[in-house]
């Protein structure tokens, strides 16, 4: 791996402490950082190099996946860290930063490869990119890369504007857009796993009746009210994570696909998505907001009573959608996506239901969180956690392996210049294009805002969206009969019998 300098904007922030430093430390322990590595942390507050290093050490003690046992290893790791005071708007700070970066490159005798990681609010992206360019930080004789976190824009036009500005300093091959769902090992393999599962003799000829993609959260808006009240579930989850899951599921990746192939296949999915217009959005989209309710035995307030939320806010905390991909394989298969906050239980999963006569349905279940695994199950509607007849089919589980954090995988990929599992501009733009009529309909209030009690599975209209097509959301506890709770143990035992893929 080539030597590099990691220039971290937002080095004193929460994301850096909880995710970036632990990921870098794990890469260091696994010997996956460049042998000559320099990190320069940036923030407005004044800190000496030593106190910055002590803060990083503290965050590793709290958040690292590996226990920090060896003081020497820690010392060696922290030796790479320097701190520099920088106000994002102050041009002269970038000139001083350039001097520090060069000084360290000379000390370490390394090529000026520079990775600029923006762990700051998206409102700063354009200014930082412009100042990097003006100061000459990007003009050394090595590679340069820009890493940014979603959100990439607020709607289609702001996303395009942001991209145009970023392109003045970095070209598309140099921009690494993190969507941390793409860093999850299961998500990286779902296309492969689906197709290898489908190729099993018995399943090959069957038609897929429907696909459901669910990302339910128990948490409410927490500390992020200011951001979330202007984003909602549609911008925070749907436009990026959920559509990325859809793309990764429905592309069939040949082994060792190149970044270009992956990009092209994902683009094709987005292009084949049947577009909505703002007047027919009502038939395909359910908008919801949580009211007061009970979560895991505790009373919680409704969204508009949360601190920091505008009184009478119409913001969405839940979205359910029916989508259709117009290509030969998927054209007859409705795809349902839902995501929301303050729901009954935390789960990210994909359920593929196969066509079958009678009450028993064959399902392929891909669990992405909290655990990662894939397995077949035969279930009766409404009894899915109990009267389960499991044909001994196949299961692939990531549970036995140590599952790496998405940031570890993505930061490593960015350091080696592999953009496969980053969001490419075309697919970001196509996602915004698809979502824009829904945003317009929300803005013009063409769509009802259904209030659902916290601790449920969202508004009942989300169930009706499937019912009219003859389906229901699988694995909602309300579909499980009362006696089933007692059968959980045998259900687990039966699942354990499944054969590895
Ligand atoms: N936290 C997460 O888990 C998470 C997850 C996914 C995405 N994100 C995204 O990642 C970004 C950072 O989130 P965060 O939670 O780390 O935020 P945060 O805790 O509020 O930290 C913000 C950082 O930005 C720096 N900063 C703010 N204004 C600045 C300015 N004018 N000049 C220089 N530095 C400035 C702050 O440093 P000083 O205060 O020292 O200036 C601090 O280091 C956000 O866009 C967020 O949406 C966060």
TrEMBL record:
SUPFAM superfamilies: Glyceraldehyde-3-phosphate dehydrogenase-like, C-terminal domain, NAD(P)-binding Rossmann-fold domains. Its EC number is 1.1.1.49. Keywords: Carbohydrate metabolism, Glucose metabolism, NADP, Oxidoreductase. NADP(+) binds at residues 10-17, 44, 87-88, 150. One of its GO terms (molecular function) is glucose-6-phosphate dehydrogenase activity. It catalyses: D-glucose 6-phosphate + NADP(+) = 6-phospho-D-glucono-1,5-lactone + NADPH + H(+). It is an enzyme of class 1 (oxidoreductase). Residues 199-474 form the Glucose-6-phosphate dehydrogenase C-terminal domain. The active site is at 241 (proton acceptor). Substrate binds at residues 180, 184, 217, 236, 341, 346. It holds the Pfam family G6PD_C. Pathway: Carbohydrate degradation; pentose phosphate pathway; D-ribulose 5-phosphate from D-glucose 6-phosphate (oxidative stage): step 1/3. Belongs to the glucose-6-phosphate dehydrogenase family. HAMAP family: G6PD (MF_00966). This is Glucose-6-phosphate 1-dehydrogenase. The lineage of its organism: Bacteria, Bacillati, Bacillota, Bacilli, Bacillales. The gene is zwf.
